[in-house]
Amino acid sequence: MSMIRDLTAAVRPSLRHTLRRTPTTYTSYDPTRDHSASSAVVDCAVYRDGRRVDDRACLTPRGAMRQVRESGGFAWIGLHEPTEAEFAGIAAEFGLHPLAVEDAVHAHQRPKLERYDDTLFTVFKTIHYVEHAELTATSEVVETGEVMVFTGPDFVITVRHGGQGSLRNLRHRLQGEPELLAKGPSSVLHAIADHVVDGYIAVADAVELDIDQLEIDVFSPAAKGSTRGADTGRIYQLKREVLEFKRAVTPLLRPMQLLSERPMRLVDPDIQKYFRDVADHLARVQEQVVGFDELLNSILQANLAQATVAQNEDMRKITSWAAIVAVPTAVCGVYGMNFKYMPELEWRYGYPMVLGAIAVICFTIHRTLKRNGWL
Would you call 350 helix, strand, or coil by DSSP? Predict the structure, then answer.
């Protein structure tokens, strides 16, 4: 119950933060104002022939789109946690579908691929491994974020939610590969998908080390006699984190298969081949995550079985000592009865003989139980 209270306390502030940030209605777009200079825009550029156009007019979404319409190329606009008001102007400028805009603003979406007219809307869950000195029953192992990508004939709009999953380094790396960027907006979509899946692979390797260490702790000889099920909370917490990982990986399989197998007008045929590699890597990660879940189930069952065995051993020891104590209890109870005529009452050596008989019988019972593994 304490774990549930901790989780509830952690979730409530984030929900309040989300509710404060998110108005209940969309702000209408006023064409007489330049909404494109949004504080949520982290980068904006036009790429022509695979190279970034060095023009100050391209620093706003509206200016970038004007450059694209006049001289060709495509615009790549990056946003971080935009509000409805901040995103309204960009959505109107690029003709984005209201349903996709709503998903991009409110976040908390399932990984998916949707097509709205001439725009592809893709949702990725980003996963970040949280470093920790020791896994505990309250340790946060993975941290999730989201990246939404609007891919059009001449633009790419990325909307990022969460503190992790920055695309700045990815953008710089792509700018060093002009022959790839020359393929158009689909090259950016592929690079983001590949970046996200590479992150999954790194997190999967780190989580595997946590599971290996947990397995060692549960099955080590020292743990068998001391923990008595104390690792159950750690196993359950890690299982919850793996479940969060699984929710990010599994739903993305179908979108990657569609991008790699089904011809799409917005995806360059040469880029589509690269999506096959991403889909293959994603399938491997998905198999790892499913294996983690099954292995944690086995570890949890083994840990509970160890606790049950330890309890049975305790009960056997208690029963054994109760059997030993029952001998003097019975003899003393008999001789404690108030009768005048009882055997050996008047005999000089009756008392030591009875004590000796009790000791011999108790020793025999103790030795027999110890030989049988009860003590």
Answer: helix
Contact (CB, 8 A) for 184 and 268:
yes
As beta bridge partners, residue 150 has: 121, 157
Q: Which of 142, 137, 131 is nearest to 236 (CA)?
A: 137
pLDDT in tens, the chain (375 residues): 343 344 344 434 443 333 333 333 333 334 334 444 457 889 999 999 999 998 787 788 888 889 998 889 999 999 999 999 989 989 999 999 999 999 999 888 999 999 998 899 999 999 999 988 888 888 889 999 999 999 999 999 999 998 777 899 999 999 999 999 999 999 999 999 999 999 999 999 999 999 998 888 888 765 554 555 557 888 889 999 999 999 999 999 999 999 998 888 889 988 998 999 999 999 999 999 999 999 999 888 888 877 777 777 778 788 888 888 888 888 787 777 766 667 766 777 777 877 888 888 888 888 887 887 777
Measured in residues, the chain has a length of: 375
Enumerate residues 6+ apart whose C-beta is below 8 A from 94. Answer: 61, 65, 119, 150, 152, 155, 157
DSSP string, 257-305: HHHHHS--TTS-HHHHHHHHHHHHHHHHHHHHHHHHHHHHHHHHHHHHH
Q: Read off the amino acid at residue 354.
A: V
Distance CA 161, CA 104 (A): 9
78: left (phi over 0), alpha (psi -120 to 50) or beta: beta
Per DSSP bridges, beta strands 142-151 and 41-48 are unpaired
- Tokens linked to 40: 């949520």
Contact assessment for residue 151 and residue 120, using Cβ atoms and an 8 Å cutoff: yes
The answer to whether residues 293 and 257 touch, using CB atoms and an 8 Å cutoff, is no
Residue from 128, 193, 116 nearest 164 by CA? 128
Nearest 5 degrees, angle CA 141-CA 281-CA 124?
60
